[in-house]
Amino acid sequence: MKTATGVLYCTLAAALPGATHAAAFTPLGLPGSRLAALSADGCVAAGNVADGGGFRWSVGGAVVRLDAAISVRALSASGRYAAGSSLDAERREVASWWDADGRVHRLGGAAGVDAISVVSQAFGVTDEPRVVGGVGDAASAFVWTPRTGLAVLPAPQAGAARAHGVSDDGAIVYGWSETPTGERRGTVWSRGVPRALADGGGREVREVIAANRTGSVLVGVLGADAAYRWSEATGIVPLPAADAPQWFGASDDGRVLVGSAGRGDARRATVWTQESGAQPLAAWLAARGAALPRDWRAHAVTAVSGDGTRVGGWGTHEGRFDSFVLDTAASPRVCGGTTAAAP
Fold first, then answer.
1. 30-281+296-309 belongs to which homologous superfamily?
2. Residue 272 CB contacts under 8 Å (≥ 6 apart), including other chains
3. What residue range is the signal peptide (predicted)?
């Protein structure tokens, strides 16, 4: 292992015949942070810090705190815009987005929607920017654009709803809506028209948590301890795995999913691939002739680049939470004119 400009190169190539490259491990060096999102090329990251703030990081640049953020949950494809929450003048949570300079833009709420402690929350953002999330304490899904302002999305039936994300072109919004009995079901809004997801037997499935950037592959909750992957071609496909994994992101082709499994101190970063199914991050890396630094323990992989070779997440280092970006690409990655360190 060697260290250069903050990047650790970790390789087991000598022990694994056929392994041809190392993995470039970049610790963000931000104690208390939890990375939440990556840009499509994996060159920009954003997330949260234990003191309630938010941050944005880019290859070759410093970590930048985002003005007034209390939670940052999403990045646009280019990494130009971030989205999450800040507090309004009455100390209520309000959906917000941050521009390239880190300035906060608060969206407010929706007319006629009760808001005692939560006016709104943002969970997704595009490069338009188009922001999606939920409004009010009872939660209604919304979409906001600079041209139209904030508009509530219709739900299939009366009840709460929330948008968890949006495709890069803004055409697909995904999340959940409630049934009359209060159960959450996976819901997709295609150009504003809602659709409840169902399995091959017509049974509705639970909330959609994540998707690829076109919205053509969705990942969600099948039951209390199971997940699913959906596409138009395959429909609902259960993802059996031990320790009830949660999936937070998908590569563009949907062949790589990232998340975590287990709870509490036993929580561990997990990767699912089309070829190998669910496996700990350590096993995924070992298959590529690499390993995490020995003084790091990865608890969650929360984001993945479009090509599936760059992942980001958080773990513990020297007894503290911190964030990392891990690149398994075989050749150097160019980020905004800067060549990212690579094996």
1. YVTN repeat-like/Quinoprotein amine dehydrogenase (2.130.10.10)
2. 239, 241, 245, 247, 256, 257, 258, 259, 278, 279
3. 1-22
